[in-house]
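Work Package 3 (structural annotation) set out to generate three-dimensional models for the target panel prioritized at the project kickoff. During this period the team completed the workflow that converts sequence records into discrete structure tokens, so that structures can be stored uniformly alongside our sequence database. As a representative example, we reproduce one entry of 152 residues exactly as it appears in the project archive.
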Amino acid sequence: MQEIFIVLLVIGGFAIIFPLFWMGILYFLSRIGGWAALAERFGTDAEAQGELFTWCSGRLRMFCNYSNCLRVTLSDAGIHIRTLVFFKVGHRPLFIPWTAVRDLQVRRYWRYSSAKLTVQDQTGGWSLTFVLYGWGLADRMRELFEASRAPR
């Protein structure tokens, strides 16, 4: 009887401790990686409209990699980025307008390409580099970025 109690206690403890530990790690990574800083300036609750790219990857400062857990929606207005449901804690959805993208560099590798964008706020005093990876994503980002810079 005592062994069953210990097993139930361990399972119950794991069911409570692991989610709290997971949420703490996600929150911590959003702070040191820069997602929280982006969300302060570009956080949104609006629904994304445009061309959807799923299972994308990204990289922010420090060691914050988002491997195959991003949904990126591109439109003429900007870039909408959100994480999958298991990674939402501390990661508010972002909408980065093309006017806030100061620079965009597309690099090609053997099997994929990346888009390295430098995001800057309206004041020009704050910037952050965000690298995104996904099939066809970088080329489409470059097209929309260049179209947003073209004279009208």
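The longest helix spans residues 2-33.
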